[in-house]
Write a structure and sequence with these properties.
It is an enzyme of class 3 (hydrolase). Keywords: DNA-binding, Endonuclease, Hydrolase, Nuclease, Restriction system. InterPro entries: Restrct_endonuc_typeI_TRD, Restrct_endonuc_typeI_TRD_sf, Type-I_RS_S_subunit. This is Restriction endonuclease subunit S. The protein is an alpha+beta fold and 410 residues long. The protein has two domains: 5-154, Alpha-Beta Complex (Adenine-n6-DNA-methyltransferase TaqI, Chain A, domain 2); 206-350, Alpha-Beta Complex (Adenine-n6-DNA-methyltransferase TaqI, Chain A, domain 2), CATH 3.90.220.20. The chain contains twelve helices and 27 strands. It has helices at 8-11, 113-121, 123-131, 144-148, 157-196, 199-202, 257-263, 313-321, 323-332, 344-348, 357-397, 402-406, and strands at 5-7, 12-16, 25-26, 33-37, 52-55, 71-74, 76-77, 85-87, 95-97, 101-106, 134-135, 140-141, 151-153, 205-207, 212-215, 230-235, 240-241, 244-245, 251-255, 270-273, 275-276, 284-286, 295-296, 300-305, 334-336, 339-341, 351-353. The strands form nine sheets. The protein has a four-stranded antiparallel beta sheet. The chain has a four-stranded mixed beta sheet with strand order 3-5-4-9, with no helix packed on it. The protein has a four-stranded antiparallel beta sheet with strand order 15-24-20-22. A hairpin with a 4-residue loop joins strand 11 (134-135) and strand 12.
């Protein structure tokens, strides 16, 4: 069935935040202060782990106090984060918001606020909202006037509530799956610390270069060999995450057979990024032959264990990515403005704690068990994500209840 639409500005209003200086921030709980939320708080769920406080006299209009059911929208940020929004629940303190975020407040007599949230946070609406942003040198600004002209599908209020309930139910299931994955991450971290935490204090280490072969990868823009070349995939920094691979975008490069032999990745090679943000030092993951043939770029180190009866690659990955490993890289890395990098010599000197191989293998077995459970949850989460996207599309195109009209089963 067709659904009537309304101008967003006729059913909701954008409310701009307050203006203040960093020196105006006061400790939480100070008399006469209120919470002040900002872009950092705008996550998939409103993040209240780092909340500022500001004097209540900075709030010039009553409407600048957040209400339960508002959407807190990132309105001045990097382009990819413009329009990102969080649902505002009931808060334990009066709260306002800064100038880089905006509150979107629906008229409850016309639009159900959960319905508004699901519509505004949908990938389709978010893409349109981002396209309305105005880009300056380092930041994009949300065009609130153009956003107010957006057409929002607006079935009767009772229908909106019904749609919101369905989407909320599926969203709750998704949240539970994500929570289970996070809890298993915490369990894995606890296993590692329980089994090896004492090693970091024992000071019995060997240089990484004494137990592994360390190599840099192929350089883009090099002078190509004269012999016949073939195009093969290669891993760049963006592909290497913290104990995970991102293969959503893998580029190819033309290489010779000798270069393939030199740079080809083998099962359980440890891939480590050369540099980036300081907090990303030590970021790396194991290669498990996700592609039949793949090499690596020069900004990605390959660490290949010499003897797996001495060092288990899974153990090595966890040690290097631990706080112990990151601390070493922060101490030794070359740092410029906001960027840190390590070289092959520094990586080779990494002090690897010595642990009995039996203990390493036991850790591997237990971690693989945790990861198997995580994969089950990820598979279910992917199915729920697809269902949620489909329901959103049907809900906002007026086809969610078509099966009722035809008498089909849901």
């Amino acid at each position: 069935m067709s659904v009537e639409s309304a101008r967003l500005g006729d059913v909701a209003s954008f409310i701009r935040g307050i203006t203040f200086k960093p020196g105006d921030v006061v400790p939480l709980g100070v008399d006469g202060s209120v919470w002040c939320l900002r872009t950092k708080n705008v996550q998939a769920e409103l993040d209240l782990s780092d909340v500022w406080a500001i004097g209540a006299d900075f709030v010039k209009r009553t409407e600048q106090y957040l209400q339960a059911g508002d959407l807190l929208v990132s309105s001045a940020n990097s382009w990819n984060l413009i329009g990102k929004c969080s649902w505002v629940p009931s808060l334990e303190s009066d709260a306002t918001f800064g100038g880089f975020v905006t509150a979107l407040r629906g008229n409850p007599d016309i639009v159900d606020r959960r319905y508004l949230y699901h519509w505004f946070s949908s990938s389709r609406t978010q893409a349109v909202v981002r396209s309305f942003s105005r880009q300056t040198t380092n930041i994009a600004n949300l065009d609130l006037q153009r956003c107010s002209e957006l057409a929002i599908p607006l079935p009767p209020l009772a229908e909106q509530k019904r749609i919101a309930v369905v989407l909320d139910q599926v969203d709750t299931l998704r949240a539970k799956r994500r929570e289970a994955i996070t809890l298993l991450d915490d369990l894995a971290q606890s296993l590692f610390l329980d089994m090896f935490g004492d090693l970091f204090e024992a000071n019995q280490n060997v240089p990484l270069s004494s137990v592994s072969y360390i190599a840099s990868g192929i350089t883009k823009g090099r002078k190509e060999p004269r012999e016949e070349l073939q195009s093969v995939p290669y891993l760049a920094v963006a592909n290497v995450q913290d104990r995970a691979l991102n293969l959503s975008t893998v580029k190819n490069i033309s290489v010779s057979s000798a270069e393939i032999e030199r740079f080809r990745l083998q099962s359980e090679d440890l891939l480590l990024t050369e540099g980036g943000d300081p907090d990303k030092l030590g970021r790396g993951t194991l290669w498990n032959e996700e592609l039949p043939l793949c090499i690596h770029q020069n900004h990605v180190f390959r660490v290949r264990v010499m003897d797996r009866e001495e060092v288990d690659p899974v153990y090595l990955n966890w040690v290097i990515s631990s706080s112990y490993g990151k601390s070493y890289f922060l101490r030794t890395a070359k740092q410029t403005t906001g960027i840190a990098s390590i070289n092959k010599t520094q990586l080779g000197a990494f002090p690897l704690p010595v642990s009995p191989i039996e203990q390493q293998k036991e850790f591997r077995s237990r971690i693989e068990g945790v990861q198997a459970h995580q994969q089950v949850h990820r598979t279910h989460l992917a199915t729920l994500d697809e269902l949620f996207t489909s329901l959103q599309h049907r809900a906002f195109s007026g086809t969610l209840w078509d099966h009722e009209a035809t008498g089909d089963a849901a």
